[in-house]
Amino acid sequence: MRVVKGAAVLGLACLASSAMVSPVWADDALTVYSYRQAFLVEPILEKFTEDTGIKVNLVFAKDGIAERMAREGRLSPADVVLTSDFSRLMELVDKQLVAPVNNEVINTNIPELYRSPQNDWYALTMRVRNVYSSKERTGKIDIDYEDLAKPEYKGKICTRSGKHPYNVALVASMIAHHGQAETKTWLEGVKANLARKPQGNDRDQVLAVKEGMCDVAIGNSYYYGNMMMDQKQKSWAEAVYINFPNQANRGSHINVSGMALAKFAPNKDNAIKLMAFLTSDVAQKAYAEVNMEYPVKADVKPSAMVASWGDFKADSLPIYKLAENHQAAVKLLDEVKFDL
Fold this sequence. Notes:
Largest sheet: 11 strands, mixed
Structural class: alpha/beta
Number of strands: 11
CATH class of the largest domain: Alpha Beta
Helix content: 40-55%
Radius of gyration: 20 Å
Shape: globular
Number of helices: 16
CATH architecture of the largest domain: 3-Layer(aba) Sandwich
CATH topology of the largest domain: D-Maltodextrin-Binding Protein, domain 2
Number of domains: 2
């Protein structure tokens, strides 16, 4: 497998502005544009090459993939796009940069709840939007997302930007369940309860709980596992409990990483073979073990560490429903000036 390491440093936006000089690949090699980090996808793609003989070029970026594909148009070398969250998939769909796939293996492996009704994107892994609580000051809590707006949490909540895709998706799910007016009231309540302005990433929120800046924090489940495996951050994770919200009612909000077939994929047949492989037991288990995410394929178990957090009830809201409320969620976050 050939990897464009420079893209990880420069970002595709930079590459796109440099006269759009595309690398030269072998004609029969697949090109994968990926928002997912190299350490996670490289071993999986290497296994695909080992099994099929099909080489894969991996182009990694933190942002700008949709913009690059739009500029490249029909000349784009991209065959498959891997995204780190649902909003990235929607960006590709909205810009008409993906093509539908009708493949029995993929449709069998990925439940309808976690794929596009038009088959133009598929989830690959799941993560829960958890509420972390201080072991020292709060203990393990039975909490709903709705509770975060209650007066008892005044000055106790930390979170990253409301505009981050993870939080936008959570707000979109709240709109789906409660409508815009009630969700706006909820957002105003959560904002009023923040211990500080939204900032940093999910790990920073857990650190803030450890340091006593806040008692609860909103964060994705896989960060908890990744912190537990990082000797520098293990004490952060050990300072909090991981709580699954809304277990007595609709279940915890789920976001997903995913994949899509590029609209002008030069190697569509092999691209679909790769997509099918990514839904296989081997690839699903690798995702689960390396990045502490939940497999989408029902009969693949999570890693031992993830399983140790216990079973939980997931929100049964179809992922594609989040797209219907995405823009409304962004608008509400602006209206309540959540990040200011």
